Amino acid sequence: MKVIIHDLDHQYDEMIGSRCDLAVAADGKYAPCQGCFGCWTTHPAECFMKDKLQQICRVIGQADELVIVTKNLYGGYSTAVKNVLDRSIGTSTPFSTYRGRQMHHTLRYGMRDLWKVIVLGDITEGEKETFRYMAERNAVNDGFHRSEVVFAQDPAELEGLL
Predict the structure, then answer these.
(1) According to the model, what pLDDT value does residue 133 have?
(2) Residue 159 clears pLDDT 90, i.e. is over it
(3) What are the two backbone dihedrals, phi and then psi, of residue 76, each rounded to the nearest 5 degrees?
(4) Are strands 102-107 and 92-99 parallel, antiparallel or unpaired?
(5) How confident is the model at residue 99, as a pLDDT?
(6) Which CATH number fits domain 2-160: 3.40.50.360, 3.30.750.200, 3.40.50.2000, 3.40.50.150?
(7) Is 82 left (phi over 0), alpha (psi -120 to 50) or beta?
(8) 52 pLDDT band (50/70/90 cuts)?
(9) Most distant CA atoms of the chain, gap in Å
(10) Residue 100: what pLDDT?
(11) Which residues pair with 105 in a beta bridge?
(12) Mean local confidence (pLDDT), 140-160
């Protein structure tokens, strides 16, 4: 299953929706993570907050390919996209294991294929390196075999990148 998380305007919904199995709009119409860890322990992979991100752990956990379209914010995800990713901590468990000779949380859904980030807007070389490193580490932590980062100036360039 291909899932796209994006922080674009609604004018891009049709294009994005046609290129994936499920699109998640990071539009800020949800609560930020409260840090209760209930999605880890009390009700695994389900947030206690009853909003559109209540099942985001399961959505991301079942994605073979996760594509994140985000505006550049100082070499990091936009705040709206970061909030969606924060709410997905339940894709792993509170237990630890070794992966790649490093300690990581045990995956609830097993290994998946691709964590891809498409970064929009002006970006410096230093910010590009930060994004590449962050995407690589996010992919490892969330159980993806590989990561990819693509940079574009404008959402109009997305057509061939998704």
Answers:
(1) 97
(2) no
(3) -140, 175
(4) antiparallel
(5) 85
(6) 3.40.50.360
(7) alpha
(8) very high
(9) 44
(10) 80
(11) 96
(12) 94
pLDDT at 70 over 90: yes
Dist. CA 131–CA 41, nearest whole Å = 31
Query: Of 156, 136, 116, which Cα lies nearest the Cα of 9?
Result: 156
Element (DSSP H or E) covering residue 125: helix 125-141
Q: Which residue has the tokens 């505006």?
A: 71
* Average pLDDT rounded to a whole number, residues 89-104: 92
DSSP letter for each residue of 83-110 = HHHHTTGGGEEEEEEEETTEEEEEESS-
- R_g of the chain computed on alpha carbons: 15
- 57 in Cβ contact with 89 (< 8 Å): yes
Structure tokens at 70: 């985000």
Distance between CA 143 and CA 26 in Å, rounded? 22
